[in-house]
Amino acid sequence: MSSPAPPLALIAELTHRCPLACPYCSNPLELASASTELDTATWLRLIDEAAALGVLHLHLTGGEPMARRDLNDIIAHAHARGLYINLITAGVTLDAGRLALLREAGLDHIQLSFQDAEAEGGDHIGGLRGGHARKLAAARLIADSDIALTLNFVVHRANLERLEQMIALAEQLGAQRMEIAHTQYHGWAMRNRAALLPTAAQLDAANATVTQARARLAARLRIDYVVPDYFAEYPKACMGGWARNTLLVDPTGRAMPCHAAHGIPGMDWPRLRETSLGAAWRSAPFERFRGTGWMPEPCRSCERREIDWGGCRCQALALTGHAERTDPVCVKSPDHAMVAALAAAAGNDASATVPVAWQYRSAKPDPTTAR
Amino acid sequence: MSARIPRLAPGVRFRHDATRDAWVLLAPERLLLPDEIACAVLHEIDGVRDEAVIVDRLAEHYDAPRALIAGDVATLIDGLIADGVLRA
Ligand code: SF4
Ligand code: SF4
């Protein structure tokens, strides 16, 4: 086995703590408590190892990374190692003082998450009253600084009606970039799938809105758009391919190739309290689905195998119970019928405007629905 | 045109990557690998020099006709501005 190309990005999930409770949160159903989080010294060591390995982008995320008191120390250390630092935040605790300190420490870019274009929907989805107004204030502060600003929107049935207002908001707030991502169905989102899955009409309208906005805004506001898997013909190259360029560390120090991989059974994830990032990158769980050698048919002989790398392992697991199967989103997958049925059911659903109850993420998942 | 002073857009960094022995442009969620000519121009961009000065310096350094260099530099800067990497 030749050694893998070095990683380009490290996603550091500093904490699972968060003042919000989004029903599609990508954190696991079992959230790590503050007492199990890695300490500062370990994070600084991991940053040294990442830089030495060849990592260029560091993404600080959570939960809410601003909940870590050592955030500035972590940023300053990564900056000194030359890493490009991106902070992914809900922004509700960001004020002018904290922003100045983040900038001083060397922060390059902030991805600010919005739950909707307006307060009523945003506060409802995030589960925090007053949250939307605080995000607006944070966005204005960032836009006035020399830190680059991206607004992130996760879109789904309950907010897609306001996609145009979301784009207008990003424009008005002076963001350089915007991410519009249809919900990915893992973890909390899987539990809330029925309430989140868009209708076919909503999806068509959304695609058209994004195409028009891109043409109009060009470089003034770059729009990255993630289409919903269930309605696509081929899957996405999840994370650009399993363990090809990204490494994620969860709050307790487990290394994984993506934020949903913790659910894959039988994987002995490297524990970075005891091992190095380089050893993790070359470890057996990272090798498990790297490249094309693991692939079953139809992927093995497919001409797209080095384009989408067989799709998402976590999605294959969530839908078929087996992580090593072809992603059922793919039209060539023997399991594709179930995805087609889900998409069709949502497409026919006339109840899109009827509010559906969802389950907020919480420290203690409801035991009756826990899997 | 040549009086414009190009600088990196907010959130964009130009640095050497020792692991891959290459100069890279780092931007939000993007990694760009500028070619040799682009690198030569990017090294001249410091937020102080205007385009005419950059062209002079490159023409001298490469011992090439100024008009030729001026065209290349303008095209390159235009492209990087359209791509959101530079501002002027
Ligand atoms: S998705 Fe929502 S709840 Fe989850 S970490 Fe982000 S802001 Fe917090
Ligand atoms: S068969 Fe596999 S490799 Fe081919 S398009 Fe489908 S998921 Fe991708």
UniProtKB/TrEMBL annotation, chain A:
Keywords: 4Fe-4S, Iron, Iron-sulfur, Metal-binding, Oxidoreductase, PQQ biosynthesis, S-adenosyl-L-methionine. Its EC number is 1.21.98.4. It catalyses: [PQQ precursor protein] + S-adenosyl-L-methionine = E-Y cross-linked-[PQQ precursor protein] + 5'-deoxyadenosine + L-methionine + H(+). One of its GO terms (molecular function) is oxidoreductase activity. GO terms for biological process: pyrroloquinoline quinone biosynthetic process. Binds 1 [4Fe-4S] cluster. The cluster is coordinated with 3 cysteines and an exchangeable S-adenosyl-L-methionine. InterPro entries: 4Fe4S-binding_SPASM_dom, Aldolase_TIM, PQQ_synth_PqqE_bac, PqqE-like, Radical_SAM_PqqE_MftC-like, rSAM, rSAM_sf. Residues 4-222 form the Radical SAM core domain. PROSITE patterns: RADICAL_SAM. It is an enzyme of class 1 (oxidoreductase). Pathway: Cofactor biosynthesis; pyrroloquinoline quinone biosynthesis. [4Fe-4S] cluster binds at residues 18, 22, 25. Its cofactor is [4Fe-4S] cluster. Catalyzes the cross-linking of a glutamate residue and a tyrosine residue in the PqqA protein as part of the biosynthesis of pyrroloquinoline quinone (PQQ). Interacts with PqqD. The interaction is necessary for activity of PqqE. Belongs to the radical SAM superfamily. PqqE family. This is PqqA peptide cyclase. It comes from Endobacter medicaginis.
TrEMBL record, chain B:
InterPro entries: PQQD, PqqD_bac, PqqD_sf. Pathway: Cofactor biosynthesis; pyrroloquinoline quinone biosynthesis. Pfam families: PqqD (PF05402). The keyword Iron-sulfur does not apply. One of its GO terms (molecular function) is quinone binding. It comes from the Bacteria. Keywords: PQQ biosynthesis. GO terms for biological process: pyrroloquinoline quinone biosynthetic process. NCBIfam families: PQQ_PqqD. Monomer. Interacts with PqqE. This is Pyrroloquinoline quinone biosynthesis peptide chaperone PqqD. The lineage of its organism: Bacteria, Pseudomonadati, Pseudomonadota, Alphaproteobacteria, Acetobacterales. The gene is pqqD.
